[in-house]
Structure formats: structure tokens, C-alpha cells
Amino acid sequence: MSKGPGLFADIGKKAKDLLTRDYISDQKFTVSTYSDTGVAITSTAVKKGGLSTGDVAVQYKYKNSVIDVKADTGSNINTTLTFTEIIPSTKTIASFKFPDYNSGKLEVQYFHDHATLTTSVALNQSPAVDLSVTIGTPSIAFGAEAGYDTTSGCFTKYTAGISVAKPDSCASIILGDKGDTIRASYVHHLDSLKKSAAVGEISRRFSTNDNTFTVGGSYAIDPLTNVKAKLNNHGNLGALLQHEIIPKSILTLSGEFDTKALDKTPRFGLALALKP
């Protein structure tokens, strides 16, 4: 694949991951196993409140293709087929969900040294079409995406963004929700291994004049332990601790508090992921 500007979905992704990834408010247990033949099996159990759910995912890799099948406790089966380099510099992704036979989707990604293009089409009688394009380099990229509903003949979304990346930092601006919101973020890595970082994000919704400013970051206490925290101007504080108890197996403790309403019950989460 080309080392170009990346997909449009990558714009602002580093900041989003730092501020949202691994923050949980339930109990989650995951066990993964792998075989030499390219088969990976992952079992997940989740308890949220008094409700317990779970799923089993099987992944098979063969040459330039990957097959993912996931079955959950609601009797839903999700299947994703990924093919790389069927046509040079492309990735093709087909997904289906049973018993919802109208949920199929076909996505084609094209990568070039100075541009990427993604087209997604729903596989039903009245397909929705999504298109995104990014131009630039790994250091600076401009992108836009749009969604079109063939049934109503209307655009369901249009978004534009810009990203600027340096070896130790990354900044992005995204205009989304059909021009109703704007979000700007900045990530600065605090070490050469990029295990510790600080992040700031500000967003504004023009229709409601609502502004949200969030700061956060992650810090590697040692090679096995990492902590993250975030706080926004609405008083929502989140923190988590991750520790690698054995190689590739991660224990995550997470909590979220409303500092402006301390009488509310804090939310806590626990996740354990075991991998061979």
C-alpha cells in the first residue's frame, strides 16, 4: 500500500482515541486464541447494569484476504470479507449481517502517494452511497466526505477536514454535521516512543451555540503501566489505569465523574483482555 495522506477517517483520529478509547463504564472480559493456520478466535462477555451480553468472533487470514465472522447473543451474525491488492493499491471490504439481509455493504479503498479515495455502497434496492477523498502527504492532508441517499435524493452528510502532522505532534480541524459543528484538536507526544501524550480539543455546535473544550492525555508510568485522564468544561472527569499483567494481556480500570454534581453516582468500568 502507498504511504500517502491516509484515509479521511484518519483525520483527528489520534485525538479521538486519546479522549475516548478504553474509557468504559461496564464490565468486559475478552479471551483470544490464535493458531498457526491463521485462525484467531475471540470470545467477549460484557455486563452492563443487570444485562449480560456476549459474542464470539472468528478471524481467518490467508494471503491477501481476511474473513471475520462474529456471532452475538442476539442471534446476529456479522461477516466481513477484506481483500487487499485485488487491483493494485486497493482494499475491498464486503460486510453482511444476518438475519438483516438489507445490511450488506461494499467498500473500496484506493491508495496513492498523494491521494486516497473511498467509496461505500449499501447492497439493497435503495442503496446509500458514501464517498470520501483525501489529498496531500503524510505531513499535511485535506479531505472531504459526503453521503447520498438514493431513495430521498438528498445528501445525508458532508464533512471536510485538514490534518497537519509532525514527528512529535498532530493537529486537525473538521467541519461536520453538514456545517453545523466544527472541531479542532491538537496532540503532542511527550517522548520519542510516543507512549505519553497531551491532547486538547475544542468543538462548537453553531445551531445551539454549545461549546465543549476537553483536555487530556496519557502517561506511561513504566513499560507495563499506562494512565489516561480527561476533563471538559462541563465538569466531566474521566481516568483510567491500564496494566499488562502478563505479555499481551491487559487489565483496564476506568472511572468517570461529574465534578459539578458530586451527588451523582460515579461510573466505573473493568476490562480484562487475555491473549496468548
UniProtKB/TrEMBL annotation:
It is found in: Membrane. Gene3D superfamilies: Porin (2.40.160.10). One of its GO terms (molecular function) is voltage-gated monoatomic anion channel activity. It holds the Pfam family Porin_3. The keyword Membrane applies. It comes from the Eukaryota. The keyword Ion transport applies. One of its GO terms (cellular component) is pore complex. PROSITE patterns: EUKARYOTIC_PORIN (PS00558). Keywords: Ion transport, Membrane, Porin, Transmembrane, Transmembrane beta strand, Transport. Belongs to the eukaryotic mitochondrial porin (TC 1.B.8.1) family. This is Mitochondrial outer membrane protein porin 2. It comes from Vitis vinifera (Grape).
